[in-house]
Amino acid sequence: MAKPTKSIAQRLLDAELAINNSLSNPDILAKVTSFGYDQTRLEAARALYQEARTLDEQQKQEYGEQYEATQAVRQAWDAAGAAYSAALKIARIAFRGNETARNALGLSGSRKQSLSGWLDQARRFYNNLLRSPDFIATMTPYSYDQTKLEAEAALVEAVATASETQDKERGEAQTATKTRDAKLDELDQWLADYKAIAQVALAASPQQLEQLGWVVAS
């Protein structure tokens, strides 16, 4: 089928109107039944509509959860980034002239802008600091003892965890979209077929076609 031009809400409403009004009007139902669209077949179509509607609601929920996960990453990154930036400034002073420490902690150069790059730098900084009692001893006079460094390392790990959750939610949202779209396409095809049948079955009753949502040119 061609790419739909109507909104999803309108596509669902069109199907709901055609199905429900066919089932609720005995005369329309009798006429389309003679062309193979009896009550059982229309009830099956209504179930298809309900499934498409449910999948649409679920897709919206999944994208809402993805949005929340994205916000959580940003908040975690902001908190960890502020702590890391301050600690980095202190470390560059504390380890001035100590090339071993500067290399181990990655003190030189700019910070990466990508999340993956930033995480790599921040983890290297805190992990190597915490592995070395000498490094911790050097930072302690600047109010960066082991407890504080461990707390800030935990902030960095919270960013990684939030990012993993974001990736999971993104994947679920994409899957929900594909599932919903496939069901909507199925519903659209059913409605297109039914419209063609109804136009024949109700050819002598244009007002009944309009009751199903299809305006007949006068």
Question: Could you describe the 3D structure shown?
Answer:
- With 218 residues, this protein is an all-alpha fold.
- It has one domain.
- It is built from eight helices and no strands.
- The longest helix has 56 residues, at 39-94.
Short description:
By secondary structure, the chain is mainly α. It is built from 8 helices and no strands.
What layout of secondary structure does this protein have?
Layout: H1 8-24, H2 26-33, H3 39-94, H4 99-105, H5 115-131, H6 133-139, H7 146-201, H8 206-211
Quick one: overall form? rod-shaped
Order of helices and strands: HHHHHHHH
What fraction strand?
A: under 5%
Largest sheet: none
Give the terminus-to-terminus CA distance: 28 Å
Supply the key terms:
about 220 residues, mainly alpha, rod-shaped, single chain
